[in-house]
Amino acid sequence: MDEQEKKPSRSLKQIVYEDLKHKIVTCEILPGTQLTEETLCDSLNASRTPVRDAVSRLEQEQLVTIHPKKGIFVNTVSLSNVSELFEARLRIEPYAVRHYGNRIKDDVYAECMAYFSQTRQAGTALYMRDDAFHRMFVEATGNRYLTMFYRIVTDQVMRYRVLSAMEDRLTESNREHSQVLEQCLRGNWTAAAECMRAHIENSKIAILNYVMDQNRDAKNIFTEVADAARDA
Fold first, then answer.
1. CB 137 within 8 A of CB 100
2. 163 with 210: CB under 8 angstroms?
3. Is the pLDDT of residue 225 over 70?
């Protein structure tokens, strides 16, 4: 039996789920988009059963919300979600860099630096590479509980990372990656951790700007608070 025969084939349900999830986390389908089973069946070239299964799984992962008789909505990026997610990232990633960055080989750091210093265009390949860059530090801890927890937010992290690139942050983000990598190559782990912290903080600011500019629901938070205060 050859190697390809040993690999279990993906079911149609899994293929549809992964395809739809990929479109959402890479923001090919933007936050706030209203979907229907009909349009999803057409775009995914699938019947209703695997599409419904995929949507149900994605609702459990808080990527979509199903509103009876209204449709399926891709969850928006809310202020509270941004704050919670980036609080988690700030707790995990600088810690991983500072204490476990020395477990990653210098040639890996050098290759990452070459990539980010040369990349000038956003796209799925860059977002996936960006995700792998951040994830490698967490996986370097060897702590399966920490890694498992980080994976819970990975999909949301990807969405925010794509959105921050929409805010013309590509050049700046790549420069920040290079700063982290430069300190790692020097073995300055405290400085590398601080560079990672600054990078995450800047990403958070970019996402908050996106939320304020593009997400009407987020804008209305302040209107509703002001109205409530005035009516009190």
1. yes
2. yes
3. no
Q: Please, which residues have CB within 8 angstroms of residue 226's CB and are 6 or more apart in sequence?
A: none
CA distance 36 to 44: 12
> Which residue blocks in 78-188 are alpha helix, DSSP H?
79-100, 106-118, 124-140, 144-164, 170-186
What is the number of other CB atoms lying within 10 angstroms of the CB of residue 226? 10
Beta strands 71-74 and 64-67, pairing class:
antiparallel
For 36-73, letters b (16+ CB in 10 Å) and e give eeeebbeebebeeebbbbbbebbeeeebbeeeeeeebe
Of 26, 36, 104, nearest to 73 by C-alpha is: 36
Q: Which residue has the tokens 């395809």?
A: 19
Cβ burial of 10 (10 Å; 0-12, 13-18, 19+) is exposed
Top pLDDT among 89 and 158 is at: 89
And the tokens for 86?
A: 């980036």
Extract the tokens encoding 155.
């999909």
Q: What is the pLDDT of residue 159?
A: 86
Give 36-48 pLDDT, tens digit per residue. Answer: 999 999 999 999 9
- State the alpha helices, DSSP H only, in 7-47: 12-25, 37-44
Beta bridge partners of 72: 35, 66
Widest CA span of the chain, in angstroms?
74
Q: Which residues pair with 204 in a beta bridge?
A: none
Q: What is the pLDDT of residue 61?
A: 87
Contact 17, 54 (CB under 8 A): yes
